[in-house]
């Protein structure tokens, strides 16, 4: 049965009037599971107008009451954790455990948003001059927007709207059109948590909807997560229209494996971090740089990766699911083919993989290349598939040089038993999130998600204190009170009113 995806505009769940229909498919067999009527321009306008109106009253709601909405939301998300993960797994193809992780990492951000009063505290200095004090407040901006990708349909919307709204803003969410049902359920639960009408709006669509949001004068700040090309476009267009923009983009994450590392741990970690979630993670480790004799572990690594079997979301034995779409699959197959043609050694080729009974799905088996070089397309492009590229370096310095030459800077890891090597790596590496014997170093929400270079455009990052700065303006007050007025105020002849 095909469901109809709903927008949430001005406090109502509506089907949408748009003539453009988008079909949401099950990636395991490409059968339709839901239909979207993309939002019309008028619907996007209504959503923004409603968010603008709601801002007037929402910003006056005391911060502790706003926090209580987040507390109720966090509680509801936990109650509905399995249900959300099931919806998410069915529309993305992720395994159930992976889908639960996607939801959980979002819940953690909502927990963080419950602490909004402390996060919004300003600064004070008494007596900056005689009888003069200076103090600052953080105040919300107005209507904020989130544009999110397909690969974390729970976590990434939850990176954005809970903190923005807890800070007193109102929010318009435009999630990926490839898996819109998880965000729809997140919004239903937010309403159930007691968020007033208009505070959160949900509109579905593609570039057409994004283009209106990017240019709309009432939109004050815009958070984007997605591919490099679209991220650059969103950043340029949004800032050109004088908005605050944070754009998280693509990645090519390297790990460096020193010969003194714990071999078994390296192999275990690399299996999950490279091909887990079909490699469709912005923090996936897609390049492994083996230093010196560590390269002798590659055959064992390949054997471990070869054991990972893709499968259906509810198959407990499945290592990962299908890619999101036939286009994504075709792109990854094309890149693997180019890698072979360019002369990389393809140790494991996943191009012909299919799950029995689901041959029409977007499957790709785990794939491993060795002797990849910096000039190859499979090295330069973000593959976003279950493909690991192995490279070699003679020294740690040479490995650092490889990583720092990459235009991306989302995440990286070093595996070593040597503290000095780890410290040198963390200090010299030009990447925003560094793991030491930790394969996917995604910071918890009290830190921020701090990608660098071509993986991020903007300055304040997602969640943590930086997100609060992104979604607020600082007001600095300098106040002077005259002691002589105290006598007047306490005089019996003074009348008030
Ligand atoms: P995408 O860029 O195709 O889509 C992201 C959003 O932009 C969607 O909502 C989509 O509707 C919209 N969009 C698509 N094309 C557009 C256009 N031409 N103009 C305006 N809007 C457009 O990304 P995706 O394929 O959904 O997600 C995968 C990408 O996201 C990967 O590159 C991955 O690395 C990246 N990603 C980055 C991070 C990070 O934190 N850096 C996190 C997750 C995903």
Automatic annotation (TrEMBL):
Its EC number is 1.2.1.27. Residues 16-477 form the Aldehyde dehydrogenase domain. The keyword Oxidoreductase applies. It comes from the Bacteria. Keywords: NAD, Oxidoreductase. The keyword NAD applies. It is an enzyme of class 1 (oxidoreductase). SUPFAM superfamilies: ALDH-like. InterPro entries: Ald_DH/histidinol_DH, Ald_DH_C, Ald_DH_CS_CYS, Ald_DH_N, Aldehyde_DH_dom, MeMal-semiAld_DH. NCBIfam families: MMSDH (TIGR01722). Belongs to the aldehyde dehydrogenase family. This is methylmalonate-semialdehyde dehydrogenase (CoA acylating).
């Amino acid at each position: 049965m095909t469901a109809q995806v709903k927008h949430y505009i001005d406090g109502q769940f509506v089907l949408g009037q748009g003539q453009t229909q988008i079909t949401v498919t099950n990636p395991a067999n490409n059968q339709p599971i839901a239909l979207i009527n993309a939002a019309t321009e008028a619907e996007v306008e209504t959503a923004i107008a409603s968010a603008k109106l709601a801002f007037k009253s929402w910003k006056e709601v005391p911060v502790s009451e706003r926090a209580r909405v987040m507390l109720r939301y966090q509680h509801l998300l936990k109650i509905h954790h399995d249900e959300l993960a099931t919806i998410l797994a069915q529309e993305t193809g992720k395994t159930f455990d992976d889908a639960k992780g996607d939801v959980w990492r979002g819940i953690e951000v909502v927990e963080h948003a419950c602490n909004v009063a402390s996060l919004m505290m300003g600064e004070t200095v008494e007596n900056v001059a005689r009888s003069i004090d200076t103090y600052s407040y953080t105040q919300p901006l107005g209507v904020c927007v989130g544009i999110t990708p397909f690969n974390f349909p729970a976590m990434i919307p939850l990176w954005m709207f809970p903190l923005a709204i807890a800070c007193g803003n109102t929010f318009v969410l435009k999630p990926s059109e490839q898996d819109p049902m998880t965000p729809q359920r997140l919004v239903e639960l937010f309403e159930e948590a007691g968020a007033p009408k208009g505070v959160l709006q949900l509109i579905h669509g593609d570039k057409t909807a994004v283009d209106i949001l990017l240019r709309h004068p009432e939109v004050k700040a815009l958070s984007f997560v997605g591919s490099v090309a679209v991220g650059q476009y969103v950043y340029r267009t949004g800032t050109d229209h004088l908005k605050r923009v944070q754009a998280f983009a693509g990645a090519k994450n390297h790990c460096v494996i020193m010969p003194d590392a714990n071999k078994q741990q390296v192999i275990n970690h690399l299996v999950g971090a490279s091909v887990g979630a079909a490699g469709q993670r912005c923090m996936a480790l897609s390049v492994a740089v083996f230093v010196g004799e560590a390269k002798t572990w590659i055959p064992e690594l390949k054997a471990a990766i070869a054991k990972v079997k893709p499968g259906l979301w509810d198959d407990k034995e499945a290592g990962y699911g299908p890619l999101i779409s036939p286009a994504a699959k075709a792109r990854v197959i094309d890149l693997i083919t180019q890698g072979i043609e360019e002369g990389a050694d393809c140790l494991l080729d996943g191009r012909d993989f299919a799950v029995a009974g689901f041959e029409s799905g977007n499957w790709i088996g785990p794939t491993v290349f060795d002797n990849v070089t910096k000039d190859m397309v499979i090295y330069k492009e973000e593959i976003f598939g279950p493909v690991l590229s192995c490279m070699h370096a003679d020294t740690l310095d040479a490995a650092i040089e490889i990583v720092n030459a990459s235009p991306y800077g989302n995440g990286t890891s070093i595996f070593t038993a040597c503290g000095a090597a780890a410290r040198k790596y963390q200090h010299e590496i030009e990447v925003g999130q560094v793991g030491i014997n930790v394969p996917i170093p995604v910071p918890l929400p009290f830190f921020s998600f701090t990608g660098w270079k071509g993986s991020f455009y903007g300055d304040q990052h997602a969640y943590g204190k930086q997100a609060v700065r992104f979604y607020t303006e600082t007001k600095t007050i300098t106040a002077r009170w005259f002691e002589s007025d105290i006598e007047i105020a306490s005089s019996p002849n003074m009348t008030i009113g």
